Amino acid sequence: MPSFPSRRRVLAVGAGAALGAGAFGTPPASASPASSGRSAGPSAGREETRSLDELYRAALAEGGKLVVYAGGDTPTQQDGTKAAFKDRFPEIDLTLIVDYSKYHDVRVDNQFATDTLVPDVVQFQTLQDFDRWKQQGRLLHYKPAGFSKIYDRFKDPQGAWVATGAIAFSFMYSTATVGSDVQLSPRDLIDPKWKGRIASSYPHDDDAVLYLYALYAQKYGWDWVAELAAQDVQFAQGSNSPGEAVFGGRKAIGVGTAGSAVGSSPVKFVIAEGHPFMAWGQRAAILKQAKNSTAAKLFLNWQVPTERQQRSFNGWSVRTDVTPPAGLKQIWEYPDAHVDGFPRFMADRAAVERWKQTFALYFGEVKGDPTPGWLGLHPGS
């Protein structure tokens, strides 16, 4: 999960006709209308009633340690989170390890299998893992304070997991290079004038970027994908890489990265009506075998209060009672964000693999070392 910056319809044409929506199962669906802030279904207990200070004291009595595995692109990407937590709770010994979610999740599975579990909290983009782990009885059912105010689709009704942040992926462009009055849409990326001037993360390396590209393919067709492949796009691992290329002045356009639609900037993060982007709630959970469960509860309770959610870099919150900045709607109110579609997309792993391999045919195999490095089996132990 990046914190950068601060940081479908398939057109069955040409050679791509055989790869229409039916070849990939159910197409990504648009978000349904926003629901209320309250969960339906059975309850797993009341919300936390202890204050942060009370939880802090209890966590210190428990031993004062906490290990978090967080999805991300670079080792330092969660340094701001770590510094803010340490500033508020200086006596907690926090270890926060960043790696691609697709490596963290299988790492945790291997730790389960070998009885060598390291993290207390997992905070990943691989949404399907949380449903699977819940079914396996791996997650502690817990409702932090304010749970009832979190958007329904951003929490498990029984408290097995809760989203701590709302993230959106789209494309961005430099207003200095492209023009401050220019209104680009994804369809415009195949204009020959952008050849050699686009950076993108590999869609077949990151499932959120993959979903974004799948939405593009379904909206604009496979001929569009083929024309984009001819644009001499600079592909790289890490969803931070397109933004870094644009903010660094090396490319005019960056595709498949997080950004903010709030305020003025030399870079415009594109949310264009009638054109797809994608968003999701980054899920977090306490593992039932956690050695430091009270510190883990403290971490979740610190992440979701109104005050912290109001400071999100992109203006979007997981809470229904936090009003977005002027000009923005709640993230789940954008049908083009496909908030409900991404969890379904992630759950169909066979379809995900078909999308990955198809985009590899268009854009080539993934090259380069993983941007967080190679962390092995038990980082943070």
Explained architecture:
By secondary structure, the protein is an alpha/beta fold. It folds into two domains: about 50-165 and about 280-335, Periplasmic binding protein-like II (D-Maltodextrin-Binding Protein, domain 2, 3-Layer(aba) Sandwich), CATH 3.40.190.10; about 170-280 and about 350-365, D-Maltodextrin-Binding Protein, domain 2. Helices cover about 30% and strands about 15% of the residues. The protein is built from twelve helices and nine strands. Strands 1, 2, 3, 4, 5, 6, 7, 8 and 9 form a nine-stranded mixed β-sheet that branches. Helix 1 (about 50-60) packs antiparallel against helix 9 (about 295-305). The longest helix has 15 residues, at about 350-365. The model is unreliable at about 1-45 (pLDDT under 50).
Give the distance, in angstroms, between the N- and C-terminal Cα atoms. 22 Å
Instruction: List the uncertain runs.
Output: 1-43
The topology string of helices and strands comes to HEHEHEHEHEHHEHEEEHHHH
Helix content: 25-40%
Find the CATH topology of the largest domain.
D-Maltodextrin-Binding Protein, domain 2
User: What is the name of the CATH superfamily of the largest domain?
Assistant: Periplasmic binding protein-like II
Assembly level: single chain
**From the alpha-carbon coordinates, what is the Rg to the nearest angstrom?**
20 Å
The tally of structural domains comes to 2
List the topology elements.
Layout: H1 52-62, E1 65-71, H2 79-88, E2 93-99, H3 101-114, E3 121-124, H4 127-135, E4 162-174, H5 175-178, E5 198-201, H6 207-220, H7 222-229, E6 234-236, H8 241-247, E7 253-258, E8 267-269, E9 278-286, H9 293-303, H10 306-309, H11 341-347, H12 349-363
Helix pairs in contact: 1-9, 6-7
